[in-house]
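Suppose a colleague, Dr. K., hands you the sequence of a protein chain of 418 amino acids and asks what its three-dimensional shape might be. Before reaching for any lab equipment, you can write down a predicted structure in token form. Begin with the sequence itself:
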Amino acid sequence: RKRYNMQTSATRQTKSAAAKTTWKWDETKTATTAWAVVLGTLALGAVPGASDWFDGRSYIPYFLTIAGGTIFIGAHRSLSSPFLQTGLTLKESAFAPVAASFSLFGIYLVIKNLNVDVLATFISLYFGVLTVAAIGGVVRTPVSQVLGDEKDVVIWTPPADWFEEEESTSSSLDSDDLNVRVSDGIALSLGVGLAIADALTQLQVPALSNFSAICVAAELLAGVSLGSVTTASALLLGLLAYDVFWVFGSAKAVGENVMVVVATSKVVAGPTRLLFPRPSLSESAAAAVAAKGMTIPAYTLLGLGDVLVPGLFIALALRADLARNAAWGDFADGLDPIRDPTSGFVKERPLFCAALGGYAAGLGMAFVANAYFKAAQPALLYLSPCVILAVLGCATAKGELGSLLRWRDESRRMRTRE
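The predicted structure, expressed as tokens, is then:
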């Protein structure tokens, strides 16, 4: 059981001095700018006829901006997350594709052979709770900023005996981290409202569904570390093989594309994908499709796993950049890259920039392959090599490949200087 180093009950009644000096990326100008770009892109994508822009290829800049922006936000939020969990082992990385395969094929069998109503209800409830927690976690900070310290008071404090005092190998918690404040209640209410609205519209409002998916991805990227570049590379390559088999190989094995069946099923309709309306068909094209008895899906989609899996590697690269500044120690000691605690802009982040550039290149290649072959593509086939090679190539160019491969992310929380 994970145990956190907590302060006494008396100290936790008010915001402690340590809590006041905690640096929170969510409160910085860079965070505001990043969210403005992502939300602005969501709004543009919701404009009627947006799918016909750029000769029907507007989904490319849309997905590039949304996916890249989500990874940027999640990676930087991990720098100040009090709940960052580390320690994925190489064995666990190797087993992940196997576990994912069993889960995917199991869902496929249920969809094809059983009454899916019970499964759909269970999955909807699960994703509903996940969406509420994710949206609440994302909007809590802006709600707190709007309320201000005077109105955002503590309404409940967990008893001290709920936690044992012990040093954690992960991020340590401040006394204020588990206090329940007014902003938490408002954020939770917003999360419930948006999750219900998303469920009731049944994906008829892609911007709302995409916002839920973005919040889920941003929370997961902020809360999980793959531990080391070696482990992260093994995970990405293993999931690459998983993606390729279930997209390309499953049709030969079971007679149809298992990944596409599951991804487009209404059973799995939670925040598991990003959606963008398909461009309008001309009358002649629509007639040709109808004559062949074909059905064109209403949306182009990008699986959330194609954001999360490379995103975890990219977030690790950002923390490695800060660890470089601390002589490859704990990234939280590498405070010098923070030019200004209020701006949140991190200087000297070559590994992160290389990884994010590799992601954009890989996603672009996936779109080109999709257009050329006119078939669903396993995005990780392009994303995983591009991201891994970009980071390893950057480290090699700087003469730091050995240091990067030896580094372990034993993270602590970043604070501003006293």
